[in-house]
Amino acid sequence: MDNLKDMKDEVLVMTNASDGNTPHVVERIGQDGSLKTRPLAKAKPDGDFLKIDRSESILESFFSNFKRQFDNPSDFRFYHLPAELLANAKELAALFRNPEENKEMLGEYRLEPEQYATKQAEELKQASATDESAPQQSTKWGMEQVDWQQLARMGITPESLGEIGTARLLNGHESAVLNLKTNFEGIKIETPACIRLVESPDGKPVLNIECCKQRPELDYYFGNEIPDRLKENLLKTHNAGSTIDLTIAGGKEETCLLSLNPKTNRLHHIPVSEIKIPSEINGVTLTENQRLDLSFGRSVLVENMWSERHQKHYDARLQYNVCKGGFDYDFRGLNRKVEQGQSQSEQREIIIPKKLKGVDLTDEQVNALKAGKAAYVEGMSDGNGGTFNAYVRPNYEKMKFDFFRWNPDKSRKQSQGQTNEQPKQSAQTTSQNRRVRKSEKKGIGASL
After folding, report:
1. Which of 42, 55, 122, 165 has the most CB atoms around it within 10 Å of its CB?
2. From CA 282, how far away is CA 65, in angstroms rounded?
3. CB burial class (10 A; 0-12, 13-18, 19+) of residue 100?
4. Which residue, 73, 92, 115, sits at the end of a domain?
5. Residue environment code for 307-316, b if the CB has 16+ CB neighbours within 10 A, otherwise e
6. Which structural domain, as residue segments, surrounds residue 163?
């Protein structure tokens, strides 16, 4: 299953212990938090299911109310799966019915409701707050630089975007698909679109809106005919896979790369002359041929890259994506176990707050978290009037923080040997190094 973890669209799968862990795919989440599902065994890849990558705010709202909606929330388990895996729905269903036997495999796709059950707006305010005596900002732009009144008129607020969505906006990344509300001569109109902030000549952020098309138009681009082989590549990988000569501005022909934004179904281009390929990627020095191939839009295998966050080597095929201004990472068909959290690093950023669950973080803790390492934090609030101690480490795949009883950057034996360097947690230790969960111990496990 690892080989397909980098798919664009993922579906939400849930199981309930009370009915034998029969897996169901979520088709939609109602405004009241109710679920409409279909048995996984009957699902197909082209089914009309909730796509997680387009519904961050819906998930946050659902999981925030999850414990109030169900009498026994701990009976439920949730997973995110690439939609393409539904082609083997019957085989997948058998895996979910035995969660303990397939714990290691399913664990890669597990979603914890506690990760979303937080006050997003309050934590966003803490993360983006600045100190006048020593101003510090962890995003490209600050909250005060955004025209929130303009966005509010379209039905967009920090609360509706959620912490992750707001952070992406402040960093200049594209949002998920949003329903923008407008009023034209008294007629209310809703338009699906993606938004992002772009830098104006004076350095200020300006809102850019890209409306969604029902389907991509790939025959022509600004009057330039697109060859069939490039159209096939655009539909399959969202990248043309090679250069194309385009005549766009002022009648000048330029050699360009072309990519398709799957969220909006719109094409984007960039002249090859404007692409800058680094000489080194994740610890690997690229050859001149690799750099040349990447600049020409080809898929290039790069081996033995190093993931600092996961302390492991991995291989991936890299391809320049015009819409992202960076690389796509494709792990399919590769033998080495990959770390998806390393993929698309330019777009996976987590805000490191100055205060975490009521505790002021030290510079050492902040620096460790920024480097993707674990930091030991004491006295954090569990949201129920109590406190807890835990190792905290960013989870770049799920865009939140994980909390552990043992240091996840070290083996359990090494972590136990450091008892003289930190307070003991005899009441919180377990026989395994796993994430802290509220269902296991009251007052432990609230996640950002």
Report:
1. 165
2. 40
3. exposed
4. 115
5. bebbeebbbb
6. 120-211
CA angle (164 as vertex; 199, 7 as ends), nearest 5: 95
Look at strands 355-356 and 359-360 and give their pairing: antiparallel
Under-50 pLDDT residues of the chain: 1-8, 31, 54-57, 117-136, 337-348, 411-415, 419-421, 423-448
pLDDT at 116: 54
Distance CA 274, CA 253 (A): 14
Indicate if 31 and 83 belong to the same structural domain. yes
Does pTM top 0.85 for this prediction? Answer: no
Last residue of a domain, one of 65, 87, 115: 115
190/182 Cα distance (integer angstroms): 6
- What is the number of other CB atoms lying within 10 angstroms of the CB of residue 434? 14
Here the contacts of 364-370 (C-beta below 8 Å, separation 24 or greater) are 369/393, 369/394, 369/401
User: In the numeric block, which tokens belong to residue 121?
Assistant: 């707006």
Write out the two tokens for 1.
């299953």
pLDDT of residue 30: 58
pLDDT of residue 63: 63
Position 384: which residue type?
A: N
What pLDDT score was predicted for residue 347?
38
